[in-house]
């Protein structure tokens, strides 16, 4: 930089010399009117000044860019550090006595997932740390802002955040993030003895934040219907995975969600709309898109304003992708079936350097399973599976998505190639106590098992989600 500055000074010195000579020449040979000469001197000095200022500002700008780049690089390196996690399974339960062995056969092998789901497990606090270790703006100094995946996360009132299966909208006008999710703050029960654990619909919660860490409760922006038992939002039904996008043409905030009955046989999507990010949202209708069953779903808004619905269909055996209509209130006719026969759910999409990526989970109810990353050149194009993105922790963490399930991926402005992977650590014994697992996701490097090669190079970049017990965004990123 010192070198470049001296060049600029040299240039301006030379420029001044040149102008002085020119000035002398002009005085000697051409210039009779003194006023004309001083005008040209002033003009040339001005040009010189402008050039100097321009060069210096360029240097400063490059310097600033390099500083940001190098601090980003340092930050990304930190996020990509591998953090190991150790835990020991409690000793296996006693063997069956010979009579029970004859009657029931040998005990089923006890897995880590059984341990995770077992409320009386010695490991319970490891997966679901208690109130004492809760985190959030009322507990931690505001300058700390660490994310603690799995710990109880409190809002700005000190209450546990209720926004499960959620997604985030960034409102550009107010530079505010809005987090929408299922409010599950009710008792967990089984509607049918063999049915999935459930909580009655309470509604869709909304929280706002400037920094993605301190969240203010904006209330239930789409509440359940209490009286009308035929209404989609009747509390006895199912409302899951709400996602909101903004329509630049209509000025509407449009919410899409999974709507079902308690047995998950309705398998539909629901649509609601509001002219404010904090609601209230008006519920419009539900439907089976393209006459197909639709369970876990998400929506994705591309840079060009086109939006898409992605949903698990054909009894969760495949995903369907469809553009939304221009007002985002319905699906267009076009639909493409993807990942056929792969049995994936909980889709979460993002875009990086023109490539589309998606993280999905397997289909095992509330139990955690292995995530997969997928990539495509077009949202409506061919999607390829590129492997398990989970890195660090340990083998079991990687095989269970850190005991969580994908729901959304947040791009971080100013940090190209870094995203937040949002997942739910479900607690089927007490769904309101389900936790949030937010982790850094980066794109880059070679995929483990590239499926396709282009002139010897794998086509896709690797997607990695790094386990951290505690991590944070850089200080300079955003302040509340
Ligand atoms: C898995 C889905 O991803 C969740 O949203 C929820 O529907 C559970 N299944 C219910 O078992």
From TrEMBL:
Keyword field: Glycosidase, Hydrolase
Compositional bias per record (Basic residues), positions renumbered to this chain: 93-107
One Pfam family per UniProt: Glyco_hydro_43
Superkingdom classification of source: Eukaryota
Protein name (Swiss-Prot/TrEMBL): Uncharacterized protein
GO biological process: carbohydrate metabolic process
UniProt xrefs under CDD domains: GH43_CtGH43-like
SUPFAM superfamilies: Arabinanase/levansucrase/invertase (SSF75005)
Family affiliation: Belongs to the glycosyl hydrolase 43 family.
Molecular functions per Gene Ontology: hydrolase activity, hydrolyzing O-glycosyl compounds
Sequence segments annotated as region (Disordered): 86-107
Upper lineage: Eukaryota, Viridiplantae, Streptophyta, Embryophyta, Tracheophyta
């Amino acid at each position: 930089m010192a070198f470049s500055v001296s060049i600029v000074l040299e240039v301006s010195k030379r420029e001044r010399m040149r102008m002085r000579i020119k000035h002398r020449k002009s005085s000697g040979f051409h210039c009779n009117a003194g006023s004309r000469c001083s005008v040209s001197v002033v003009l040339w000095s001005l040009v010189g000044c402008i050039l100097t200022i321009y060069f210096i500002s360029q240097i400063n700008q490059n310097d600033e860019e390099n500083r940001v780049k190098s601090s980003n690089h340092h930050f990304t390196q930190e996020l990509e550090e591998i953090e190991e996690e150790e835990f020991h399974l409690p000793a296996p339960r006693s063997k069956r006595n010979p009579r029970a062995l004859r009657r029931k056969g040998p005990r089923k092998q006890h897995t880590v997932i059984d341990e995770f789901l077992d409320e009386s497990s010695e490991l319970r606090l490891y997966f679901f740390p208690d109130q004492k270790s809760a985190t959030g703006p009322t507990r931690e100094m505001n300058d700390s802002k660490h994310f603690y995946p799995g710990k109880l996360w409190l809002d700005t009132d000190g209450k546990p955040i209720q926004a499960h299966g959620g997604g985030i909208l960034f409102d550009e006008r107010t530079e505010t993030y809005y987090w929408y999710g299922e409010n599950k703050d009710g008792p967990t029960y089984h509607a049918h003895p063999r049915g999935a654990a459930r909580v009655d619909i309470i509604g869709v919660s909304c929280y706002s934040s400037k920094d993605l860490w301190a969240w203010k409760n904006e209330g239930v922006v789409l509440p359940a219907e209490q009286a009308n038992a035929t209404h989609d939002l009747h509390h006895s039904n199912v409302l899951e995975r709400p996602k909101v996008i903004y329509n630049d043409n209509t000025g509407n905030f449009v919410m899409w969600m999974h709507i079902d009955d308690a047995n998950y046989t309705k398998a539909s999507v629901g649509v609601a709309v509001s002219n404010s990010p904090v609601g209230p949202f008006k519920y419009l209708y539900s439907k089976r898109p393209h006459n197909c069953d639709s369970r876990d779903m998400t929506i994705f808004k591309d840079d060009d304003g086109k939006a898409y619905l992605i949903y698990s269909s054909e009894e969760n055996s495949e995903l369907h992708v469809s553009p939304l209509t221009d007002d985002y209130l319905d699906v267009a006719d076009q639909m493409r079936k993807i990942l056929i026969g792969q049995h994936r759910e909980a889709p979460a999409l993002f875009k990086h350097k023109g490539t589309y990526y998606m993280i999905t989970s397997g289909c095992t109810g509330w139990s955690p399973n292995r995530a997969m990353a997928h990539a495509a050149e077009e949202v409506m194009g061919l999607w390829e599976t590129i492997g398990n993105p989970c890195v660090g922790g340990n083998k079991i963490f990687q095989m269970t998505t850190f005991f969580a399930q994908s729901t959304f991926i947040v791009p971080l402005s100013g940090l190209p190639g870094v995203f937040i992977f949002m997942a739910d650590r479900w607690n089927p014994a007490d769904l309101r106590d389900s936790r949030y697992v937010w982790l850094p996701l980066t794109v880059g490097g070679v995929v483990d098992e590239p499926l396709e090669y282009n002139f010897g190079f794998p086509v896709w970049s690797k997607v990695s989600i790094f386990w951290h017990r505690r991590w944070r965004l850089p200080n300079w990123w955003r302040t509340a």
